[in-house]
Amino acid sequence: MKTWASLLAGLAPISALVLTPSVAHAELDACGGVFVSANASCQFHKTQDCVETCKTVSVEESCTAHLYTTCDSQCSAEASASCTQTCSPTCVDDCTAADAGEKSSDELCTKNCMDDCNAKCANAASPDCCAKACPYTCDKKCEDTCHDNDQTTQCTPKCATACNGTCTSEASTSCQVDCQTKQWDDCQTTTRQECTQSCMDKGGAIVCDGEFLNADNLNDCASELLDKLSIHIDVNADVNAVTKAADDAANKASNTKVGVSCAFSPFGSEKGALWVAAAMTAAALRRRRR
Question: Can you tell me the mean pLDDT for 214-219?
């Protein structure tokens, strides 16, 4: 009994790839190229608590998006004829299943590709890396090849598109997983440093479901979250508050510096006034003596 429980616990993270219900998601170019689901919980962490957040935040999604681009030039395999022939019957069955509803070619492509990820990641050298790199490759290749609005298209032509995307994805996932695994640990260290730097330079960072979004511009990332997924994050007020606080601190420091410099002037303080009075008295005494 204990053996079965241990086995099921070990398979849970991998099986979650296909057992998780399909939820609308989108690639967010302005947020570091990551894919984020519409039901994600996103927050803006401003500078005060952002640096502490970066120490524990997950950076796997950002690493996957970055490493996918880095590895893409050497992982440009195309769909094989044998793969598309094997895929087509399975795809048509999925498309016409009574409980399937109307699926787009993008959804069919992603579903079949995720099934392949389960097999690949079960014995991967780095299961954590594979569990991110393989699904991301599926999402990316299926999105590039297929359509998300062709639900009403007949299954046979739709599956031709879906299988081309699936087989292209499957041909790339092994290469992507192997390539990303070699750089996985170093990328996470670097990305955490970028998270901290983002906090200091941009007044904070955006985190979705515990994942740091490595955005070049916080406002652009927030706008894309709103436009594509209807996720609203107000970064302007917090960033402006941080900027104002920094300006106030700078002004205070500047004023303090002026005050210090004035302390050396005989005319800049109460002691300066006494010095002037003493000088005038001394001058009057000299005139009397004459």
Answer: 96
